[in-house]
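[09:14] KT: can someone run the structure on this one? pasting the chain below
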Amino acid sequence: MQGAHASFKHGLQACARPSNFPVSSKRLTSFKRPAAINTLKNSQEAKNELKEETRRDQQEMQKGLENVLKSQGQELKNSLEKKIDNVEEKINSVEEKIAVKNGRKDSSS
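[09:31] RB: done, structure tokens below
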């Protein structure tokens, strides 16, 4: 009976050793790591992709704003030039009236 007991005990000890497991503890952790690393890589890739999309969106908005400002600036420039022309015309008109009045005064004296 003692021999059978010793044999059974030896079998249990042999099974309890990690080297006898069909999958070692190192292999188990290596299976877990890639999934975690892949998740981390996917997360980092998603983060980088989001940064890139945000950068592109910001560039598009910047270009759009620049175009709007150029357009508005051109409209404002045109409007101001037109007002300046109107003021110059009024100044010329007043100067002509003054010259006519001065001419009348000169001829009457």
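[09:33] KT: thanks! The two ends are 157 Å apart (CA to CA).
[09:34] RB: yep, looked fine to me
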